[in-house]
Amino acid sequence: MNISVIGAGYVGLVSAAALAGKGHDVVVIDTDEGRVRTVNGKKSPIFEDGLEEAVSDGIESNRLKATGDYDEILATDITLICVGTPSNPDGSMDLSCIVESSKSIGRVLRAKKGRHTVVVRSTVVPGTTRGVVIPALEQHSGRKAHVDFGVAMNPEFLQEGIALRCYFNPDRIVIGDEDGATGDMVQQLYEGISAPVIRTDITTAEMVKFVSNAFLATKLSFINEIGNICRRLGIDVYDVVKGVGLDYRIGRSFLRAGIGFGGSCLPKDLKGLVHSSRELGYRAQLLESVLEVNQNQVVNMLAMVCEKLVDLDGKTVCVLGLAFKPDVDDIRNAPALEAIRLLLEKGALVKAYDPLAMPNARSVLSPEVQYARTAEEAVADCDCVLVLTEWDEFRNERLYQGKVVFDGRRVMEPARARMFCDFQGISW
Ligand code: NAD
Predict the structure, then answer these.
(1) Is this prediction's pTM over 0.85?
(2) Is 154 in the pocket of ligand 1 (CB under 6 A)?
(3) How confident is the model at residue 428 (pLDDT cuts 50, 70, 90)?
(4) Which of 116, 195, 225, 241 has the highest CB neighbour number within 10 Å of its CB?
């Protein structure tokens, strides 16, 4: 198939490189010229395991190319919209990239001969494809959706760090469409991938993605809250989870207590759902609490640090880990960002280290933050250490000998850690 992909980010570039690897001809279109140059130079603009090799293979085999030119859509059969949908300050979803890309696709479709299919892969609030994408496509193409061109919603469930693996081994494939034939075409993209396929209408497919993320976030805040209670009772929540998680109805995944969830998806999708629910006249109390519990984890840790050090003014605090999870350089909504903001507000000197995310962090954090070249350099001469991302290299006991340590990610067994450092776990 000839495929165009809009957006060369995590979702777009992973989809594009994977589809090129399966033998399709793929053009990825991005408004960021730097990203276009990087991809055409056989490199990946984001750090993702195996992606650079997949991009390089795609470019070398001429199955993949990047461009800023939307007219390239004319030579394709299907267009996947994979642009970002960040949060607005009020929690609603910023749909400006969705609107702009839909308008641009619509303008090109005006000149397109034959049928075309447009697939929304970005995470959008239920109702967006029908209420925003389709009207923009129709207005700018002068054509009618589901008659002159097909529209589908095919949410992406990848996890950063293992995104390509997720693409080829999904738990399920969800395809929402209105006419059957469009969904069949989208399903062909997954030929050779073994996973249950769930066919729905467009709005249901949008909701499946939101509910998946809302449930994962709820599990995390649930276990963090339980951890906060356990800590006060002198119980290790990780031992509790061993006993609870073996119940097949519950499971153990996403029951790792810690500093809280971040990243580009869970916080903003949950905020988007809470916001749109309010607009519909319903207050989603449980989901609001999930967000509140999550935000409080960082505040709780800072309170523990203040209690220990008495006054943070002039104290040196080492922050190990800036990325929202290990094996990625993505710092969007990472708990470390808020922790550092609060530390600086209290007059602390912050020394930070992350194996991958420091270049991204520098562009958003206060210039007062100092960066170390290694974890050893970061922990040297500090008054306390906060572990905020569970990179493997932070599991090294030698880093913490004789230090005051606050573990936000369970990088150490508490009983063992207390033998060589002044140790506190955030929820255990
Ligand atoms: P991203 O920020 O990494 O990439 C988005 C890309 O779109 C950028 O390269 C940007 O330059 C480009 N872009 C923006 N406007 C454009 C336009 N008008 N035309 C062409 N290109 C444009 O975003 P992402 O992390 O890949 O997320 C994309 C969507 O997928 C979001 O809705 C997100 O919620 C969802 N999603 C993300 C993940 C994830 O783990 N990152 C997982 C599942 C779903």
Answers:
(1) yes
(2) no
(3) very high
(4) 116
Q: Which CATH superfamily is domain 2-200 in?
A: NAD(P)-binding Rossmann-like Domain (3.40.50.720)
Atom of ligand 1 nearest to the CA of 13: 26
Does any ligand 1 atom lie closer than 6 A to the CB of residue 35?
Answer: yes
213 lines ligand 1 (CB under 6 A): no
Fold of 212-425: Rossmann fold (3.40.50)
**Residue 263 structure tokens:** 């990243």
* pLDDT, tens digit, 9 for 90 and up, residues 254-281: 999 999 999 999 999 999 999 999 999 9
- What are the tens digits of pLDDT across the range 45-104? 999 999 999 999 999 999 999 999 999 999 999 999 999 999 999 999 999 999 999 999
CA of 362 to the centre of ligand 1 (A): 21
The verdict on the CB of residue 58 being under 6 Å from ligand 1 is: no
Q: Which atom of ligand 1 is nearest to the CA of 35?
A: 9
Element of type H or E holding 319: strand 316-320
Dist. CA 17–CA 165, nearest whole Å:
12
DSSP 252-319: STT---SS---SSSHHHHHHHHHHHHHHTT---HHHHHHHHHHHHHHHHHHHHHHHHHS--TT-EEEE
